[in-house]
TrEMBL record:
Signal peptide feature range: none
An example molecular function term from Gene Ontology annotations: glutaminyl-tRNA synthase (glutamine-hydrolyzing) activity
Role this protein plays: Allows the formation of correctly charged Asn-tRNA(Asn) or Gln-tRNA(Gln) through the transamidation of misacylated Asp-tRNA(Asn) or Glu-tRNA(Gln) in organisms which lack either or both of asparaginyl-tRNA or glutaminyl-tRNA synthetases. The reaction takes place in the presence of glutamine and ATP through an activated phospho-Asp-tRNA(Asn) or phospho-Glu-tRNA(Gln).
Protein's organism: Candidatus Uhrbacteria bacterium CG_4_10_14_0_8_um_filter_58_22
Gene of this entry: gatB
Domain Asn/Gln amidotransferase: 353-508
Amino acid composition bias (Basic and acidic residues), ranges on this chain: 279-290
Ranges where the record places region Disordered: 279-302
Record lineage: Bacteria, Candidatus Uhriibacteriota
UniProt GO BP: glutaminyl-tRNAGln biosynthesis via transamidation; translation
Annotated Pfam families: GatB_N, GatB_Yqey
Catalytic activity, as annotated: L-aspartyl-tRNA(Asn) + L-glutamine + ATP + H2O = L-asparaginyl-tRNA(Asn) + L-glutamate + ADP + phosphate + 2 H(+); L-glutamyl-tRNA(Gln) + L-glutamine + ATP + H2O = L-glutaminyl-tRNA(Gln) + L-glutamate + ADP + phosphate + H(+)
Protein name, per record: Aspartyl/glutamyl-tRNA(Asn/Gln) amidotransferase subunit B
Length: 511
């Protein structure tokens, strides 16, 4: 018997508006001091009336467009009725039959290592807006059953995104969430940090049997009762919980105990298991009805305006980086997965074109797009990130601007400085913002141009290191690399490595 996982996700995105969803309290529910950003409205006091946060609605619409959704002309809020200590009113203001949008989709490219990339598409059932609940802190009181309530988070704007059951593996679920997080950051509607609760996910999973000849049977639309998994606070926990649940449900199928009712289970990250919580509610259990204190929203004019403001999204930017700059797909993905880094790289490419044209007009080497791509990916992705990590800096706190970086790359391209000394110059640029040519002159880091001096350094390296010389003469050609290192050391990194190697091999062949 072959079983196939059927997975759908319910994702809550905390929107970074200035104020809460239905009141004017500041939207900063992660404060350490409890119950300071509260008012009668977000604590559910009798007689208070909610006011819709227009910016939250616009953010929800912007997300909808980014996910290819059909944004409603008319949308409304509803009361979702249930009792829980973190819900002060005894109901949550959410949306039921007229959400902000429906029928979207998101295509993801999943890296499968040596097998390359595989694209899959996930349907987006709907996106609706709602208010967040308060935060519960369970403590050991006198009876060991005390809970404290912090209402700072109550009323925080949430966009809930519900997918179709189109995911077929934990890896796909993780990749979908990572791409969704990136889209939220590109739109600047949420930082979407799972560890801070800004992106929360519940996963729904069931299994179904795949017939021996799938083409001959209409089986692919069959859905069995699903199990909802809660308490997923990281991408890794989503992946691990789904892997465990697939194994657990597979065993039930093999034992003839196929799940027949909806259920909710919690993920225990420490033990690596899901734990039964309760049977899952249907929408009818919540007794939805229209929110009487809020009129329906006419989104027609806002819809027309916002549809023209969606920025370039991650996948489109990756493709453009490949086509426009000649980057590999892997490098384009690394750049575009960090919006700030991608912005910086774009400015470096722009400045590099100007620097290269200026230097070429003065007799310098022409810079091909392939060479530019290699320089930017090698030095911005690898070398710059290494320097930043070593000094615990970020793109925001470092001082090496795009123009100076482009000048340094031009110097490297035109053999004015070796890679070894270019790294020293880069470090100084990052720390002080100094001009690279100025650093090179002040610290005498320019590339050696006197080949007679270089040949003398090569001869000295050969004389001082008989063992690698003997190895080279014995057929171990890689031994020359040690001698190149000795020449670089003797010339304080100013010798061009390729030229040093050529001269060394020339001198060695005379032995």
């Amino acid at each position: 018997m072959r079983l196939e996982p059927v997975i759908g996700l319910e994702i809550h995105v905390q929107l970074k508006t200035e104020s809460k969803m239905f009141c004017s309290c500041p939207n900063c529910g992660d404060l350490e001091a409890p119950n300071v950003n509260i008012c009668p409205t977000c604590t559910g006091q009798p007689g208070t009336l909610p006011n819709i946060n227009a910016r939250a609605v616009e953010m929800g619409m912007l997300i909808s467009y980014a996910l290819g959704g059909e944004v409603a002309g008319i949308s409304k809020f509803d009361r979702k009725n249930y009792f829980y200590p973190d819900l002060p009113k005894g109901y949550q203001i959410s949306q039921f039959d007229l959400p902000v949008s429906q029928h979207g989709k998101l295509s993801i490219r999943l890296n499968e290592g040596r097998d390359g990339e595989r694209e899959f598409t996930v349907g987006i059932t709907r996106l609706h807006l709602e208010e967040d609940a308060a935060k519960l802190l369970h403590v050991d009181g006198g009876d060991g059953k005390s809970s404290l309530v912090d209402f700072n988070r109550a009323g925080t704007p949430l966009a809930e995104i519900v997918t179709e059951p189109d995911l077929r593996s934990p890896e796909e679920a993780k990749a979908f969430l990572q791409e969704l997080r990136l889209i939220m950051r590109y739109l600047d509607v949420s930082d979407a940090d799972m560890e801070k609760g800004q992106l929360r996910c519940d996963a729904n999973i069931s299994l179904r049997e795949v017939p021996e000849d799938p083409k001959n049977e209409n089986w692919s639309t069959q859905l069995n009762p699903k199990t909802e998994i809660k308490n997923l606070n990281s991408f890794r926990s989503v992946e691990r919980a789904l892997e465990f649940e697939i194994k657990r449900q597979t065993k039930l199928w093999l034992d003839g105990q196929i799940p027949s009712i909806l259920a909710t289970r919690g993920w225990d990250d420490a033990r690596g298991v899901t734990v039964e919580q309760r049977t899952k509610e249907e929408s009818s259990d919540y007794r939805y009805f229209p929110e009487p204190d809020l009129p329906p929203m006419d989104l027609t004019d806002t819809r027309d305006r916002l549809s023209r403001t969606v920025p370039e999204l991650p996948e489109a930017r990756r493709r453009r980086f490949v086509e426009q700059y000649g980057l590999t797909l892997a490098d384009a993905r690394t750049f575009c997965d960090q919006p700030d880094l991608a912005d910086y790289a774009e400015r470096v490419f722009s400045e590099l074109d100007a620097w290269a044209a200026s230097v070429q007009s003065a007799g310098g080497q022409a810079l091909t797009p392939e060479r530019a791509a290699k320089l930017v990916s090698g030095w911005v992705l690898t070398k710059l990130n290494g320097v930043l990590s070593a000094h615990k800096l970020s793109l925001e706190t470092m001082k090496a601007g795009p123009e100076n970086m482009a000048e340094l790359l031009t110097m490297i391209h035109n053999s004015q400085v070796t890679g070894t000394n270019a790294l020293l110059i880069l470090e100084e640029m990052v720390l002080s913002g100094a001009d690279p040519s100025q650093v090179m002159e002040e610290k005498v880091l320019g590339q050696m141009e006197n080949l007679d001096e270089l040949r003398e350094a090569a001869k000295q390296a050969i004389a001082d290191n008989p063992k690698p010389v003997e190895d080279w003469c014995g057929g171990k050609t890689t031994a020359v690399q040690f001698l190149v290192g000795q020449v670089m050391k003797a010339t304080r990194g100013k010798a061009p490595p390729e030229e040093a190697r050529r001269i060394l091999e020339e001198e060695l062949s005379k032995l």
